[in-house]
Task: structure prediction
Amino acid sequence: MDIKKKKKKITTPIWRYFIFIALIIVYILPMYVLINMSLREVTDIRSRLYPPIEIKWDNYSEVLNKSFFNSLKNSAFIMVWTVIVEILFGSMAAYGLVRSKSKVAERFASINLGIMMIPGLALLVGTYSLMVRVNLVNSLWGIIFLSAAGGLPATTFMYMNYIKSIPIALDEAAVIDGASVFRTYISIIMPQLKAVTVTRMIMTAIGSWNNYLMPVFLLQKKSKHTIILLIKSAFDSAGSVGNLPQAAATCALGLLPIIILYIFAQRYIIEGQIDSAVK
Result:
């Protein structure tokens, strides 16, 4: 006798939709205000929720000058190399800590977890003094090393959770075939870490692009300014001169590359977070 199982239809209470809509509005409202202000005339001082009387695209064309593209190049350079350094050394450190069964490796893993709890602001004075001594003030490489060093503990921690789930028998089989430790890491381990690698690459890229604390102290020359420092300068000028629409246009253009990156890569972020939770 066939038993038919009735599937219960899951219904969502209507009040939840109102909450979702309210949350979406809360998140979208700042972007709406930013775009709205960037398309206004300087003399338009009405409420920022009102649409502009006349759309002025000139605000964007005035921002697209030599200074903007130079800052864009600096931010892109810092972001790319920060991702490379952090992913390379973070994954290698995680592989060594996981596969090593010594007490020293366990202590290093505990220290790494403790370092993650230290806020970067608490290290500002000592970090600035160190950068002055090694002559890395006004150096993009100085920001790259600092950013990568700040993100390495979290990167190592994420990789460790993934590598623990990879059977050690794969390493042993690679050794039997004559592969070195580095070859095993490159050919056997890293291909299985695609989800966490992509996730961490995106997180590191966004963090590097939006980094403000260290660049504002270490990049004092305008030729070394990043996009975030350019946006800060634009709003500082707007406070005295009053060209707030142009400052808003600078902010919108500066955030555009990282927003596009996130839109195209959000699927990998979600997949990586789900895999990390399962592992």
Notes: The CA atoms of residues 71 and 225 lie 6 Å apart. DSSP finds twelve helices and no strands in the chain. The radius of gyration is 24 Å. The first helix runs from residue 14 to 38.
